[in-house]
């Protein structure tokens, strides 16, 4: 997976917005105004995603491409390298997990707006 494929995958999800709130090098993907993924444009081989704390540790133990989140809360975020042995399906699952965690944390009203496309 490359940065363009990652971008396309994130933007096809309901309610997702893309921005550069931390400067011109860091693409940020949000759902309901909350971040679920960050990626450096200049270092496009890795991204940060939110993760359930227990699953975060499991993934780090299972895959060398998954490390504690760079510049993030190490308990809740992982940095995932895309240029290793992880499959596209595995990368998608990590992105989906992060998106779902954030979506479920939003108020019900916003979740409904996203589901109906009115957010």
From TrEMBL:
InterPro entries: YjbR (IPR007351), YjbR-like_sf (IPR038056), YjbR/MT2646/Rv2570-like (IPR058532). The keyword Signal does not apply. The keyword Metal-binding does not apply. Gene3D superfamilies: 3.90.1150.30. GO terms for molecular function: DNA binding. Keywords: DNA-binding. It holds the Pfam family YjbR. It comes from the Bacteria. This is Putative DNA-binding protein (MmcQ/YjbR family).
